[in-house]
Design brief:
The complex is a heterodimer. By secondary structure, chain A is mainly α. Chain A contains 11 helices and 2 strands; from the N terminus they run H-H-H-H-E-E-H-H-H-H-H-H-H. The chains are: A mainly alpha, B alpha/beta.
Chain lengths: 291, 394
């Protein structure tokens, strides 16, 4: 084990929280779809990738500020999400979970291949904010700090929306019990459409923010699908604040594992954590919705 | 009696069919099978290699082909995955019945598919496999073209030692080639008296290097040697800047030499050292013609992967010409004897098919150009920009 100074530890904890906020926002989308429809959306990562390419495309063609492109990527991918739900996903909502897995897996392959056709598999980057804020002995990547702020803001807005608005309450009602919600006069089909769109928009926001941080390519999404699964299981599937906790925890665990052990094992450590949580608290750290 | 007659008739008939079929078969193109990484993490270099193969085939065909037959490549995409490569070579050889094969991209995939080509006794010239062990396992039909992974960063280590630098950190992707290159770099560093303050691997597909780089920053090495492919070379460089990590020299094995490395990183690529098997400016025969033909055909400049693909294909076809047959054992004999200077440099292998004549070069990105800085006889008086200034002064 290397000698770890407090400065290294501080630097790594901050890096972990910066990454974690982003994971939390993206995973919230996945958790939303699962909570409302019991559908595991494997295409969540590829939707994030679409968001990233929208940003890249707007940046490289008209030079649009990548953070402003959130205003394009989120609504656009929202609509794509609604269309996917309307055409495909609604057909498997009541089917066994394997059907929805297979369907969204198919959608994910299709999206990745479309992106390869449209953009080729070359790496692309948005060279916008490289470099860092230097604070004393610490260096904070500009793009990651800003991504964290946006992610925190968007996640907070999403929570406010779920807690305070009529539509948000309806979404939560459907996720608690579809039958009762229906009896109360909530149009469940419309809620499903909206929830899938909102989840896709959250993924797209993640894509936009990621595009400024790292170089992007069509297959970039898969890793975010896995991380999001991890996050919602850690936090408790269907428990929305749980996604926030799970995201931050995953970010921290990955970074601390890299620091104290090696970068090679950070994913292993994250998944061991997952197994432990499943063994000791199968409903997630904050308790998920019982099935 | 009747039976014997029947047998004889059948034999005659078969001979007649063969005799009829022979002339047409002789003129059918030579089908060359290869799997190439067209998607996935090796997509970029894989595509260059494919283009090298294509240009080689086109030029050979323009001159009338080999053994009186045209050369025709059959490509499949292995998605940068060794198991897919294995499946594709099985398919190429058993279903598509290609006449001969050429190697795929990367050491990892070449290592995996070499088992298939050995099994079917197919000669495989592997132009982009740089790992020694592939050719030191008693395989009979695998041939190496480029320099081995171990010596990739010899130039970086040598320059660092000559400039009096003392410490080095070595990181690598945890796959066959980068691992081998890292081990080789570590040995060279020890030999030159550099102290290794950190050596660590990271998994393929890793995008967040902050913790690793934080550790390196704390160890404060003079030199960072990164044994990379392309995606990770870009990510490492960006995150080094983000963490304000300022070594006096920073070099990468693969990826740094691709023009897109500079396109993606722009001025942040300045001062970075890269190892390459080949540069268009090196004084090898046929270089100018190759550059002209390649850029006019593909509308972009080649990387060394393209040159190696091109040269590997030429080396193989030269051996076929000398053997005057596609028979694997006879072509193998010629490949073992062959000494050839291509646009890539020298080719000569030992009895195991291991490359012994080819030489690596080290370049540095200077004002958007790759300037060869090592070895001295290739550098042509170019100056190393040393030491690398801190990020905020570039």
């Amino acid at each position: 084990m290397p000698h770890v100074t407090p400065i290294m530890l501080g630097q790594v904890i901050v890096s972990g929280l910066l990454a974690g906020a982003l994971y939390a926002m993206v995973a919230l989308g996945l958790g939303l779809i699962f909570g409302v429809m019991r559908v595991l959306n494997v295409a969540h990562g590829p939707l994030l990738m679409l968001g990233a390419y929208v940003t890249y495309w707007l940046f490289s063609t008209v030079g649009l500020n990548p953070y402003l492109s959130l205003l394009v990527s989120m609504p656009l991918v929202f609509l794509i999400g609604v269309a996917l739900q309307h055409v495909f996903v609604r057909r498997v909502v009541d089917a066994p979970e394997l059907s929805s897995l297979l369907l969204t897996f198919g959608i994910s392959i299709a999206l990745v291949n479309l992106a390869q056709l449209a953009f080729t598999s070359d790496l692309r980057s948005v060279e916008f904010l490289t470099g860092s804020f230097l604070v004393g002995p610490f260096a904070f990547s500009k793009s990651r700090v800003i991504a964290c702020l946006f992610a925190a803001g968007i996640t907070a807005l999403a929570f406010l929306f779920l807690q305070k608005t009529r539509l948000g309450k309806a979404i939560r009602a459907v996720s608690q019990s579809r039958e009762v919600a229906q009896v109360c006069g909530i149009n469940v089909q419309r809620i499903h459409l909206f929830a899938f769109g909102l989840a896709s928009a959250l993924a797209a926001a993640g894509g936009t923010l990621v595009a400024v941080m790292v170089a992007i390519q069509p297959e970039m999404g898969a890793v975010y699908t896995f991380k999001s699964f991890l996050v919602i299981v850690l936090g408790g599937a269907g428990n929305y604040p749980g996604a926030l906790l799970g995201g931050l925890l995953l970010g921290l665990v990955e970074q601390l594992a890299s620091l104290f052990l090696t970068t090679q094992v950070n994913e292993a450590v994250a998944y061991v954590l997952l197994v432990l949580v499943l063994l000791l608290r199968p409903t997630g750290l904050l308790g998920g919705r019982s099935t | 009696m009747i039976k014997r007659n029947l047998g004889a008739t059948a034999l005659l008939a078969a001979a007649a069919v063969l005799a009829l079929a022979w002339p047409t078969a002789a003129q059918a193109p030579i089908k060359v099978g290869a799997s190439i990484s067209l998607t996935g993490t090796y997509a970029k270099p894989g595509t260059y290699q494919k283009e090298g193969y294509e240009l080689c085939a086109q030029e050979v065909n323009d001159k009338g082909g080999v053994l009186g037959r045209k050369v025709e490549f059959v490509f499949y995409d292995d998605q940068s995955m060794p198991p897919t490569g294995v499946r594709l070579y099985e398919k190429l050889i058993t279903e598509d019945k290609v006449d001969v094969v050429m190697g795929p991209y990367s050491s990892a995939i070449s290592e995996a598919v070499a088992n298939v080509t050995e099994k079917y006794k197919k000669v495989m010239v592997a132009p982009l496999a740089a790992t020694t062990s592939i050719f030191k396992k008693g395989r009979k039909y695998a041939f190496m073209v480029i320099s081995p992974a171990e010596v990739y960063l010899e130039g970086l280590v040598d320059l660092a030692a000559k400039r009096g630098l003392k410490t080095i950190a070595i990181v690598n992707e945890d796959t066959l080639f980068p691992k081998t290159a890292a081990v080789g770099t570590a040995e060279l560093a020890k030999k030159k008296g550099l102290q290794i303050v950190l050596q660590e691997a990271y998994p393929k597909g890793n995008t967040d290097f902050s913790a690793l780089l934080t550790k390196i920053k704390a160890a404060n090495p003079d030199v960072i040697a990164a044994s990379t492919y392309f995606d990770d070379a870009v990510a490492l460089t960006r995150q080094m800047k983000e963490l304000n990590l300022n070594p006096k020299m920073y070099g990468v094995t693969v990826g740094g030499d691709i023009p897109e490395f500079y396109d993606l990183l722009k001025q942040n690529a300045e001062y970075i050292y890269g190892a390459t098997q080949w540069e268009p400016t090196l004084p090898y025969p046929g270089q100018k013609e190759f550059m002209a033909a390649y850029t006019s055909k593909f509308k972009h400049e080649p990387s060394y992967h393209a040159a190696a693909g091109y040269a590997g294909c030429q080396i193989y076809l030269e051996a076929v010409k000398r053997a005057a047959t596609l028979d694997a054992d006879k072509v193998r004999d010629q490949l073992l004897k062959l000494e050839m200077r291509t646009i890539l440099g020298d080719y000569k292998v030992d009895a195991d098919g291991f490359q012994t004549a080819h030489k690596m070069v080290l370049f540095q990105w200077q004002d958007g150009k790759k300037v060869t800085v090592w070895p001295d006889d290739m550098a042509a008086g170019a100056k190393v920009r040393f030491p690398t200034p801190p990020w905020n002064q570039r």
